[in-house]
Amino acid sequence: MTRALLVLLLLAGAACxxxxxxxxxxxxxxxxxxxxxxxxxxxxxxxxxxxxxxxxLSAFAAGGLLAxxxxxxxxxxxxxxxxxxxxGLSGGAATGALLAMLLxxxxxxxxxxxxAGALFATLLVFGLAHGTGxxxxxxxxxxxVVIAAGWxxxxxxxxxxxxxxxxxxxxxxxxxxxxYARTPWPALLVLSLAVIALTPLARSLNVLARGPMQAAALGxxxxxxxxxxxxxxxxxxxxxxxxxxxxxxxxxxVPHMLRLVLGNDQRLILPASALAGxxxxxxxxxxxxxxxxxxxxxxxxxxxxxxxxxxxxxxYRSR
Length: 319
Known about the structure:
By secondary structure, the chain is mostly helical. The chain has 14 helices and no strands. Helix 3 runs parallel beside helix 8 and helix 8 (185-198) packs antiparallel against helix 11 (222-244).
């Protein structure tokens, strides 16, 4: 377990170094070393420390948050197709954040609105999918897709009434664009605290993954644990959406692939998801800003190109 996490940590570090060196203006390893040791030319220092480093850290934080949220949802639902984007959590967070932005709220209120939107979307999806009986994975998935479409309609309505000067930033933010990310440190703090907080719950999550009845029989407080997962997944999704906008399929691809390779032990999957999700989004963002340089693509386009065929393949396998 320690070896796998060490490998993922090294890959995350390599991805961040790669993101710092690659771009419209290449930075050689020697120049990068000089900058990181407090030397180097002023232009290189500005390029690396003020432009690329905050962007790489923001991408890593957002990817780790989304991957951990996806891992939690997949444990809760015992379904590899569960994902904050597919189930409408990202849409709810984006709707809340855009509404706050439209009303001229500050960044703190935008974050709070995103969390409220994600939590409301979670309750709405699970409430409608449950109905008067118990939910099934297919029913939950269909409910999430419909609710996500509803959030899309609400977002379209808000864009239609938004003043013209606010539209470009909002549109790029909706597509998922790390270029507009502000400071990465609050998101990195939330990611670190989430890993620390969830580590003691990993054994209970392992039991919950076998089903709520078995978990209750083995002494797990199922309902409080489920509510903790709801709240944590909403918080992680809202933090990522507030930072980089709506980015899909990271929470679907990363936890599922890690389970295929590392097994289903949440003591390993949760921190591994944080590292692997961050690494994936750092590499995707590097590709987004270099593939047609000097023009940049929203990173959400890259993750969608990876996630859509993966989602369809998993849906096909789960027939």
